[in-house]
Amino acid sequence: MKAPVFIWILTLFIDDLLPFLLARFYPCYSHKMMALSVLGSRQSPVRWVYNTWCIVSGLVFCAAPYLLYQENRTELALVLWILLAIYGIGCEVISGLCPLNEKREDEDVITKIHGGASAFGFMALLFVPLLLAILQLQKDQLVIGVLSLACFSVAFLFFCFFIMGEKAKFAQSVLRYGGLWQRLVLALCYVPILIWCFCFFI
Q: According to a count of CB atoms within 10 Å of the terminal CB, is the N or C end of the chain lower?
């Protein structure tokens, strides 16, 4: 039973580190300005590697949370599993199968599917730390529950920055760094999941 959790931990780390490695082979790619999905765009020289990994990662996010549900067997744990599966399918699998067009003005049906699925999946992941915090506090795991709640609060703030940065009036402000805010949101959402995974081995 521990092998899937180990695979999930490995997947979480690769999700965070792989973009930094692939960006070295993508001239002019900016981590601060560009979304992760651009690495898998049709113009990207590393699209096959990134999109293949997205599909693999998405499948892990669909399957691995079953262990979290098995451990708790509550409606809240079931909702967590569903949210993580939505993230895995929307932000990972569909994104990998439907790469966007890097140029926004050339948006087509595939790019719209990618955008809609990614947005839905991203929103689902955002609330995972909050539900994990509630689950942990219900089990009197005060320290990690408060940590998960803090991760949700800061991730929600950065998510607001990410959304606001899309507006023209913030184009010259620090909010324009959409790639940075996206990465911070993902990292903060992954931290409570990693903590749960590590606690699984204790």
A: C
